[in-house]
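About this split. The held-out portion is used to measure sequence recovery: a designer receives only the structure tokens and must propose an amino acid at every position. Recovery is the fraction of positions where the proposal matches the reference. Here is one held-out target exactly as it appears in the evaluation file.
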């Protein structure tokens, strides 16, 4: 049903936000701890930057995909890979190509590292 789909996308976003908030809180505690090694702080700041830029990129891609007429989309950037969950039970090749194009352009990732999953 449409409501079950809507709930999936809403709940996923909520959980993603919660998880990231905890991660950011932890990284900030490392950065702000006077006892932290300078190298560890540098690494933590770099992780923080990556999380922030991933969050922004995911949001941009989700909005671009929705602008193409899809009901909803979730983009997950994980290191070299990007997974995209689309609120549609089946995707035709043209739709897959359109989504792949957006993700490749916005993420800079190789097409082989982009996985598009219809939400059944």
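Reference sequence for scoring:
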């Amino acid at each position: 049903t449409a409501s079950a789909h809507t709930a999936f996308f809403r709940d996923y976003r909520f959980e993603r936000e919660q998880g990231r908030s905890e991660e950011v809180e932890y990284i900030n505690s490392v950065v702000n701890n006077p006892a932290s090694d300078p190298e560890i702080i540098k690494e933590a700041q770099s992780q923080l930057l990556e999380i922030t830029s991933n969050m922004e990129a995911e949001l941009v891609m989700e909005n671009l995909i929705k602008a193409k007429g899809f009901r909803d989309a979730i983009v997950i950037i994980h290191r070299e890979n990007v997974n995209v969950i689309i609120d549609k039970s089946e995707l035709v090749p043209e739709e897959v190509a359109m989504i792949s194009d957006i993700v490749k352009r916005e993420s800079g990732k190789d097409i082989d590292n982009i996985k598009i999953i219809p939400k059944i």
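Annotator remark: The two ends are 10 Å apart (CA to CA).
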